[in-house]
């Protein structure tokens, strides 16, 4: 795509970096594959920090009345654990796949806006660092991941913990929004000839729907966060109950964002599973159109159910009934998807390797989580389950057993494509079984102790409550999960450098990314592919058409060029964010830096083709 | 990369539309907050104490006319009539700036004369947050149009070939106008009409 930049009336040197190497290459890169790897590695490190927070929580809860972690720190731990896993773990891990895989699946050379893509990554990284730096700068946020006002206002929560949460989430929101704008436009406008919407691979479809949800949901939380920020920094009254403010305002705004958000977390994993199962069952996906429509329906219904998070706030019987019904309705399209996955495997020649195991693990765990979800979608029974460990069990079944299993399956599935090497299958299976057993022994007993009344977010419990045994089991099993993840890391590190060569198409794949070399060349496709069917690559392989000699020379292909500005704009945002917490003058400087760097970005010249 | 896109539309234009869709939700949340808090908390100073509908009607009219002027500017750019394009650009920018001037005047009236600050009551909080956010949007628009106008002063830098740059700014400008129509109706008119339930 050519953009004709406005001409600068005065001369300043805005030249682009030419053939940067080493660290400068990574800082200035606009290649979607490199950005995807950056996203993946960063998000995985964040996932590990969130896991360490979880282990600390579980260690404190191992037995009754333990004193390993102080109550104040415990509050910060569970807040940061959830915030990390959702915003710094699952979402960017999905974004890593979007970055790496989507352009390959739709037959594009890059995303629609390569520099914007780099900007998303750097903003995500800096947002994550803002959030995590709170541990070293006087304490982390401590009001839970949904940060209910007014407990987050300065009246009840002085100190900077909540400020880090407020500005950190806004910066992360900018990153997610920029990425989603990019992926919507990429999927609409960068498809190869013949790649109609109903020929898109399901992972691309799920990404598209996720990005639309994100674009519409994030502004709502941004407004809520801005309101809270104005309250905390400038004494506005949005959540000041003594001025007559309604505490439910935050809850409504938060959950209008928050419920679409849970589909933002799960839909990419569903997309990954929908790629893995057909490949290893050697069958096309069962009910492709139904899968697409079910996901679209889930995404639409996701907007009509937010108050099921607020059944116990006293909205009244009519509201509770309506939201009960709309919530239960979502089980229908989810069931459609579930049966279609089973239908895909049914009668297939199934190869049970690590990605398949994780996908089948996803199906079973997500099913359990879905069923417990339908249990508290019923407002009357939710009155007993609200704020107990039953909810903790539910959300970990859908987020850990669901989203994380899907993502791990995806990492194993695309690892040969990304690195050109094969992972260690034995260790992969060991990883799966440790995580699968650990997950069930950690989270299933939470259903029991939740029903027995153990509230979530308490730092300890009395020995006479009868919760000690299962809590002990849960803590032990949490470490089993940790060992599973450890094996995953060893496997990845070992195989990345020394695994056996994977070849271009190790899985007999169905989608376009398997038609090119592993790892893909920087230009992805020598010739833009012409798509004639769903699962085009697989269909062509059946017809015996595989490699076509190309006349295009790699040096004739125009590629997005490196740029310093995306990182510098993100840096400006970060300075502004710290400024809000500590010093408004610094904030002003940060905003000025953003404005200047954005202008420089828009006037950035394109290097002559000869220059590289 | 090639110039061809799947839909034939320019990607930047689709990006702009997606952004505006997102911005709709942004303003919807702010307007929602305003409506939820309408009539709650300390009632004075309230909408009927501070609003001067004739004054705000004038500034609303000016902003709406700026949209028309924007359309003329774009139409002349497409016809490569740069001189007329510049005239209408200046007029759009002046009208946008006039609207901002009215808003500054209005805010200072409310603040110094009616003693309404964001800290006073829920009305002050929600009113300043909503209209202030809109004002920031208008400011960004004026600066954006200003940059395009400034670069048009130099030879051949703006022409019908680069009309997409103006097209995007114009889309944004019209959107900000439409949002103001909603704000004017919901905040100003509903706030002062007697008989409208508060």
Overview of this protein structure:
- The complex is a heterodimer of chains A (612) and B (198).
- Chain A has 612 residues and is an all-alpha fold.
- Chain A has two domains: 29-560, Cytochrome c oxidase-like, subunit I domain (Cytochrome C Oxidase, Chain A, Up-down Bundle); 564-612.
- Chain A contains 17 helices and no strands.
- The radius of gyration of chain B is 19 Å and the shape is elongated.
- The termini of chain B are far apart.
- In chain B, helix 1 (11-37) runs antiparallel to helix 5 (122-152) and helix 3 (53-78) runs antiparallel to helix 6 (163-192).
- Chain B has a domain at 69-193: Four Helix Bundle (Hemerythrin (Met), subunit A).
- Chains A and B meet through helix 5, helix 6 and helix 7 of A and helix 1 and helix 5 of B.
Number of helices of chain A: 17
Could you say what the CATH architecture of the largest domain in chain A is? Up-down Bundle
Kindly name the structural category of chain A.
mainly alpha
Average of per-residue pLDDT values of chain B: 91
Share of helical residues of chain A: 55-70%
Give the topology string of chain B: H per helix, E per strand.
HHHHHH
Chain-averaged pLDDT of chain A: 92
Q: Element order, helices and strands of chain A?
A: HHHHHHHHHHHHHHHHH
Kindly report the CATH topology of the largest domain in chain A: Cytochrome C Oxidase, Chain A
Largest sheet of chain A: none
**Distance between termini of chain B?**
56 Å
CATH superfamily label of the domain at 69-193 in chain B: Cytochrome c oxidase, subunit III, four-helix bundle
Q: Can you summarize this structure?
A:
Chain A is 65% helix and 0% strand.
Which features would summarize this protein structure in a list?
heterodimer, A: 612 residues, mainly alpha, Cytochrome C Oxidase, Chain A, 2 domains, globular, B: 198 residues, Four Helix Bundle (Hemerythrin (Met), subunit A), 6 helices, 0% strand
